[in-house]
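Notes from hallway chat w/ T.B., transcribed later so I don't forget. T.B. wanted the structure written out for a chain they're using in a teaching module, and asked if we could keep both sequence and structure tokens in one place. Agreed to drop them here.
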Amino acid sequence: MNNLVICCVGDGSLHPQWLEGQKDFDLFLIYFGGQSGLYREQCQHYAEAKGSKWQLLSSQIAANWDWIKEYDAIWLPDDDIKTDAANINRIFALFHQYQLKLAQPALTPDSYISLKITRQRNWAQLRFTNYVEVMVPVMTSDTLEMLLPTFTLNKTGWGVDYYWNKLVRERGWGPLGIIDAAAVTHTRPVNPEGGYYQAMGISPGQERDEIMRRYKLSKKKRHYGAVMELAGRAVKLRWLPYIF
């Protein structure tokens, strides 16, 4: 399988850690910092541009679609994600093994976590859900092609992930997945009232609520089942609400 990681990176990006060890993926870095050429030698594909994550991903994926579409799976993490090459390889391996169309790695317990459903469950290989977060989504190239127009529905990406579930499931491609056996660490807190959002005069909550209203979406997050390791083999379980 051909796998690709696409990441918008600044001067403090953690992506060099992702290169530690043997890689089963290529790397496309979109650099928005101030030191031209800073990471050019660390990746197979490289671009420099200014903008928000989803604006940059939208424009760069569209501009390079002729070769991006040849990859079987594409991961779109933020640049403040702590992990290594072996774990990224495992994300892709489990994504392919369970024939997912849209998924994400779980977040380790020491991560900055906004939504409980994304927290790692140490008893599971993965959980089948109706939700993945915009922070670290992994998808097939045909899913990416379908979802690409949603990347610029707003500036922050908040709320767009709820819409993704609707689009994927309407195609009959669901459920989505959260991969617990290859969790990553989110290292920076999210401050919806400050930082980039404040500087741009953006309210992430308002952008999310507008998406929810426009597409008549529900904030309810559900588990549909899980895969556990029992006696050395993977076993699929139906949804057991009391253990989630």
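Follow-up for T.B.: The longest helix spans residues 85-97. Might be a good example for the class.
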